[in-house]
Every structure is written in structure tokens, then in C-alpha cells.
What we know:
InterPro entries: Cu-oxidase-like_N, Cu-oxidase_C, Cu-oxidase_fam, Cu_oxidase_CS, Cu_oxidase_Cu_BS, Cupredoxin. By secondary structure, the protein is mostly beta strands. 5% of the residues lie in helices and 41% in strands. β22 (318-325) and β23 form a beta hairpin. The chain is globular. One copper (II) ion is lined by residues 375, 429, 431, 434, 439.
Amino acid sequence: IGNNEGDTNSLPIPKLLKDRNPDPDVAEFYLEAQHATKEFFTGEKTNTYGYNGNYLGPIIQVRNGEKVKIKVKNELDDPTTVHWHGLEVPGEMDGGPHQEIYPGQTWEPNFTINQPAATLWYHPHLLHKTGEQVFKGLAGLFYIEDEVSDDLNIPNEYGENDIPLVVQDRRFTSDNQFDYNIGMRDMMTGILGDTILVNGAIQPSLEISEAKVRFRILNGSNARIYNFYLSDDMPFYQIASDGGFLESPVKLSNLELSPGERAEVIVDFSKADIGDQIELRSDDFEVMRFKVKSKNNNIDLPQELVKINKIPEEQATVKRSFDFQGMGPMVSINGKQFNMERIDEHLDLNATEIWEVTNSASGMGGMGRMGNVGHPFHAHGTQFQILERNGQTPPPNERGWKDTFLVYPGEKVKVIAQFKYPGMFMYHCHILEHEDAGMMGQFQVG
Ligand code: C2O
Ligand code: CU
Ligand code: CU
């Protein structure tokens, strides 16, 4: 991965999508999946996909309790779908592989938001094509706000001190086009790019003028697992996981995020000096950098954020096990590869269930870590609470709502959830090349 030489472009801030309905209780949005070109490299055009633009999409911001209608138009030459990752809605509105939108057609889901403030996202989920469509640029963030997110004493001015960071790695051909030619190595690990993009710009920089800034980080990569840290050992505080705020801020020196996972963090730049450049790094490469211009408005962090009611374990009526197996083109869950005609699990509406997810895919001699990958487990239509990771209480930043969690070989993660919406939903590995190869199943609720 190329390292930044210091001369960087500035971080693009995505637009907030305009609500087209004047009624304050109803929000109406328009999204268009389209072809475009973008200059990732000066003077060079790359063919891309985007929503309402040339790469990625606008941020859809809604409130808990609000009625939401979205029109999604497909202007691509291929079918697509739009899935609301992390959103709790009926199966028909979920945008999984069953809700195909053909070229030229419009899909009009509507739902009522019924979950706490959180940073979710949306992306295509077309059978066998999810990886390619996301890679070319189809993804965007989906914010839910509520009274808690309004009133907490945390940075919440969008684009000022509340900044989205969509982190992706991409591979380009020698003529600067996206290189999504999947070889055997890519089938093993998922595609790993050598160019890091944040909000669609290569290793950008952001000027910081406040002491504390909130970053909403999405690992929007197809396959890369990041282990984020800041240069100069600067600490940061995680305040939210996939499905909402944690009970209290968790001080971290590094943060592991697998594909599909989100974390909201607050960085305390009061520890830096004006003129400093602080790098956000992962492993041995730079992701982006922060240039400290001035610092004011030093707010203390609240010690308590929200109260998360634990789902009582005794309420669970069913226990299920999911085991990640195989590798490369043979990846499976419980020995089965995805089949759209087969329903893998039947759940009762409103059931509370305990799911145990294991990864028994073992390393292959001679291939080093290649055959030995962690798989991020994700399920649609609900948010989990992690009960145990390898028999232990999970780490503090995994004690909130999660819809995606990483399971390394030999690990066992035990989670609990309620299934409040009827319909057909997916569960899968969020390494998109694994999902597309068949590491996915479906469950019917009700
Ligand atoms: Cu983010 Cu089934 O996906
Ligand atoms: Cu999802
Ligand atoms: Cu996987």
C-alpha cells in the first residue's frame, strides 16, 4: 500500500440527501444508481458507479419514529438492489437479493424507523454481483437520529465536528480503471486493494479546528480488515458500535473494524499542538491525516451515553449454530452454499434466539494466512447483543448493538437477538467475495 508523501487532497464531505416531503413526520428520498466517471488520479478518468453522483452516495438522515419513503431508480445496465445494512424493517423492504431492480426500473420501499440513533449504511446486494457493484462505487451512509443523539453533549454538527469516514481499499489497472478481476488469491482472502480511499479520495487530509471531533467510521471495503490507530499514540474514545451508542465511551489505542462494521469515535485533539499532522493509520500504512489548525470549544465527554437493556437470556426459545467452513470458491456456512430457492432457517415472529457463530475453516499449509481468514458474520433485519466471545464477556466496545462481528478461525461468538419483522432475510460473511461465492444463507421470520 502506497504511503502518503505529504501532499494530499482534502477529505470530501458527502452531501446529506434532501428530504422531498414537507411533512415533518414523513421523509421522502430519491436515489439513482448510475454510471459515471471520476478523477481519482489528476487528469485520469476512471469509470465508476455512484448514487446521485460519480462515486458513493449521499447520506440519508432520518429520525427514529419517522415514516420513510425512498424511490430508487436503476440507471445501470445491470440489475441491482439497495440493502439498508443494519436497519430493522420487514423483509420486503430490506433490499436483499430478492428485491431486484431491473435497468430503467424504480423500487419504492417504505418503512417506519423503529430503532435508536445509529450510523448504518446502504449498498447493493445482487446475487453474485454484490462485490463488483460495491467495488465500483455503490455505497452510502444512513444516519438515524433521536432525542438522545440530539441532547448528548457530543459533537453533532455535520461536516464541522461530526465527520463521516468511509474507508475502502481499491485496486486499479495500469490505465487507472477499477481492477475487479478476481483471481484465486482474491477468492481466498477477498479482494485487497493497494490504494486507500476515504470518502472516495486517496489518503486525504482534513483540517481540524476543534478540540474534540466525532468520526463515524465505516469499513466499506470488500475484504480488508483494518486495525486503526493514530500516530503519536493519541488515544480516542469509541462512543457507538454498529447499531447505536455504547453505554459509556471506551478509551482505545487501536480499533479493529472488519468489512461492514461501523464505529463512532471521538478524537481528543487537545493533546496535539497547532501545526501538528496526526495520521490515522492501519497496520503499516496511512489511511488519512488530520492537520491541526486551531483548537477551541473543548467539551468534556459525558461519562454515560445511553442505557442498553440487556435481552434476557432466559427469553431465548431457540438456539442455532452457524459454522463458517471451506475456503476460496468452496466457502460455505454449515456446509451449504447459498441457494435462493432454499430457506435455511425458519424463525417465529418476535422470537428471541441465541446464535452461536464459529469459524472452523483452518489454515492451509504453505498458504500462510491466506487460507486462514477471519469471517465477519452479518445478519439482516435485527441487531445483536454479544453474550460471549470465546466463552468470555466481550470487550467493552462490543457490549452495544452489533449487526456485524468478526470471527477468526477457532473462535466462537455467542449472540442474542429479537426478530421483530416478518419476511426473508440474509445472513452471510461480509467479505463480499465470500458472500458472492455462496457464504450466505437465508432465514424466514413468521
Ligand atoms: Cu451489508 Cu447483507 O449486507
Ligand atoms: Cu445487511
Ligand atoms: Cu468470509
